């Protein structure tokens, strides 16, 4: 849908851990599976990976694979998954009514050296994809250290496919 270079906003600078005004690459793409529209992907990329991404076609299947082939090992990501309503623009791009339920995944992705690679927000149509996340261990145990220095905690298994199934009940018939 779009790919542009620009100056980092305050929000992008904070999320990517770069100075306000530093160059970022922003892209948004409509993604498909077997020819069916399933999601809208929006990403802001850190300055240090822009040369790799600029060399990629707009329809590259996996930016993570392309980064790995260029020597950038993406090894950690934070993901927040929640249900949201489609904006007018998202509804137009995804072929649904405004305010239709979507599954949103917000992510920040880190390289092996701890630098932030990307901040993104994906909006998935209901009934198109399921997410499953598992965590194991006792709640009082402290898990591995993340690149940002924080520590994760163990917990019970989470099955997020239930959220996607819950949203599916409002999906328009196709």
The proportion of strand residues reads 35-45%
Strand order of the largest sheet: 1-2-3-6-5-4
Helix content: 10-25%
Q: Which radius of gyration do the C-alpha atoms yield?
A: 17 Å
Q: H/E order of the elements? A: EHEEHHEHEEEEH
Number of strands: 8
Mean pLDDT: 83
**How many individual helices?**
5
Low-confidence stretches: 153-174
Distance between the termini: 23 Å
Overall form: globular
Q: Could you give a short account of the major beta sheet?
A: 6 strands, antiparallel
Structural class: alpha+beta
Describe the structure.
By secondary structure, this protein is α+β, with helices and mostly antiparallel strands. 20% of the residues lie in helices and 38% in strands. The protein contains five helices and eight strands, in the order βαββααβαββββα. It has helices at 10-16, 50-54, 63-69, 88-94, 161-168, and strands at residues 2-7, 23-33, 36-45, 74-85, 101-111, 116-124, 142-145, 151-153. Strands 1-2-3-6-5-4 form a six-stranded antiparallel beta sheet. A two-stranded antiparallel ribbon has the order 7-8. A hairpin with a 5-residue loop joins strand 7 and strand 8. It is globular. 20% of the residues are buried.
